[in-house]
Design brief:
Elements: H1 4-22, H2 26-30, H3 33-51, H4 55-59, H5 66-78, H6 85-109
Length: about 120
Protein backbone atom coordinates (compact mmCIF):
# COMPACT_ATOMS: atom_id res chain seq x y z
CA UNK A 1 0.00 0.00 0.00
CA UNK A 2 1.25 3.46 -0.88
CA UNK A 3 1.61 6.17 1.69
CA UNK A 4 -0.96 8.99 1.65
CA UNK A 5 1.74 11.37 0.49
CA UNK A 6 2.02 9.43 -2.77
CA UNK A 7 -1.66 10.01 -3.51
CA UNK A 8 -1.47 13.64 -2.47
CA UNK A 9 1.37 14.18 -4.92
CA UNK A 10 -0.70 12.42 -7.61
CA UNK A 11 -3.58 14.80 -6.92
CA UNK A 12 -1.37 17.86 -7.23
CA UNK A 13 0.38 16.52 -10.32
CA UNK A 14 -2.99 15.88 -11.96
CA UNK A 15 -4.21 19.37 -11.16
CA UNK A 16 -1.09 20.83 -12.76
CA UNK A 17 -1.43 18.59 -15.83
CA UNK A 18 -5.08 19.52 -16.32
CA UNK A 19 -4.29 23.20 -16.11
CA UNK A 20 -1.43 22.74 -18.59
CA UNK A 21 -3.59 20.78 -21.05
CA UNK A 22 -6.41 23.31 -20.90
CA UNK A 23 -4.08 26.26 -21.31
CA UNK A 24 -5.36 29.80 -21.60
CA UNK A 25 -7.84 29.17 -24.39
CA UNK A 26 -10.86 27.21 -23.18
CA UNK A 27 -12.47 27.30 -26.62
CA UNK A 28 -9.38 25.81 -28.26
CA UNK A 29 -9.34 23.12 -25.59
CA UNK A 30 -12.99 22.29 -26.26
CA UNK A 31 -12.08 21.71 -29.91
CA UNK A 32 -9.05 19.53 -29.18
CA UNK A 33 -10.10 15.93 -28.68
CA UNK A 34 -6.65 14.72 -27.67
CA UNK A 35 -6.38 17.39 -24.95
CA UNK A 36 -9.89 16.51 -23.75
CA UNK A 37 -8.97 12.83 -23.51
CA UNK A 38 -5.82 13.72 -21.58
CA UNK A 39 -7.76 15.94 -19.17
CA UNK A 40 -10.42 13.32 -18.54
CA UNK A 41 -7.71 10.75 -17.77
CA UNK A 42 -5.99 13.13 -15.35
CA UNK A 43 -9.29 13.89 -13.64
CA UNK A 44 -9.88 10.17 -13.27
CA UNK A 45 -6.44 9.64 -11.70
CA UNK A 46 -6.96 12.64 -9.42
CA UNK A 47 -10.34 11.39 -8.23
CA UNK A 48 -9.07 7.82 -7.80
CA UNK A 49 -6.11 9.06 -5.76
CA UNK A 50 -8.48 10.98 -3.49
CA UNK A 51 -10.42 7.78 -2.79
CA UNK A 52 -7.25 6.05 -1.67
CA UNK A 53 -6.58 8.57 1.09
CA UNK A 54 -7.46 7.35 4.58
CA UNK A 55 -10.89 8.46 5.78
CA UNK A 56 -9.49 9.86 9.01
CA UNK A 57 -7.12 12.08 7.02
CA UNK A 58 -9.92 13.34 4.77
CA UNK A 59 -12.12 14.01 7.81
CA UNK A 60 -9.73 16.78 8.80
CA UNK A 61 -10.53 18.62 5.57
CA UNK A 62 -14.32 18.93 5.44
CA UNK A 63 -14.21 21.75 2.87
CA UNK A 64 -13.36 19.19 0.20
CA UNK A 65 -16.44 17.41 -1.11
CA UNK A 66 -14.88 13.94 -0.89
CA UNK A 67 -18.09 12.06 -1.72
CA UNK A 68 -18.77 14.25 -4.73
CA UNK A 69 -15.22 13.64 -5.91
CA UNK A 70 -15.76 9.88 -5.59
CA UNK A 71 -19.03 10.16 -7.51
CA UNK A 72 -17.25 12.22 -10.17
CA UNK A 73 -14.68 9.45 -10.52
CA UNK A 74 -17.44 6.89 -10.98
CA UNK A 75 -19.01 8.97 -13.75
CA UNK A 76 -15.65 9.33 -15.50
CA UNK A 77 -14.98 5.60 -15.32
CA UNK A 78 -18.41 4.04 -15.75
CA UNK A 79 -20.34 6.63 -17.74
CA UNK A 80 -17.52 7.80 -19.98
CA UNK A 81 -19.83 8.03 -22.99
CA UNK A 82 -22.04 10.46 -21.12
CA UNK A 83 -19.31 12.78 -19.87
CA UNK A 84 -19.72 16.37 -20.98
CA UNK A 85 -16.17 17.72 -21.11
CA UNK A 86 -17.34 21.31 -20.68
CA UNK A 87 -19.26 20.42 -17.52
CA UNK A 88 -16.33 18.40 -16.19
CA UNK A 89 -14.06 21.37 -16.80
CA UNK A 90 -16.45 23.74 -15.04
CA UNK A 91 -16.62 21.40 -12.04
CA UNK A 92 -12.83 21.09 -11.96
CA UNK A 93 -12.34 24.85 -12.08
CA UNK A 94 -14.87 25.40 -9.29
CA UNK A 95 -13.59 22.70 -6.94
CA UNK A 96 -9.88 22.56 -7.71
CA UNK A 97 -8.71 25.45 -5.47
CA UNK A 98 -10.16 23.80 -2.36
CA UNK A 99 -8.77 20.38 -3.27
CA UNK A 100 -5.34 21.82 -4.07
CA UNK A 101 -5.22 23.74 -0.79
CA UNK A 102 -6.24 20.64 1.17
CA UNK A 103 -3.66 18.43 -0.57
CA UNK A 104 -0.93 20.98 0.04
CA UNK A 105 -1.95 21.34 3.70
CA UNK A 106 -1.99 17.57 4.17
CA UNK A 107 1.49 17.29 2.70
CA UNK A 108 2.66 20.09 4.97
CA UNK A 109 1.20 18.20 7.94
CA UNK A 110 3.33 15.23 6.87
CA UNK A 111 6.35 17.52 6.58
CA UNK A 112 6.45 16.80 2.87
CA UNK A 113 7.10 19.30 0.11
CA UNK A 114 4.31 20.14 -2.31
CA UNK A 115 4.66 19.08 -5.94
CA UNK A 116 3.40 22.45 -7.16
Amino acid sequence: MNRPQTYLHHILDCIEAVQEYIGDDRDAFLHNRMAQDAVLRQLQIMAESSQRLPDDLKAGYPDVEWRALAAFRNVLVHNYLGVDVGEALTAFEAKMPVLRAAAEAMLADFGDKCAA
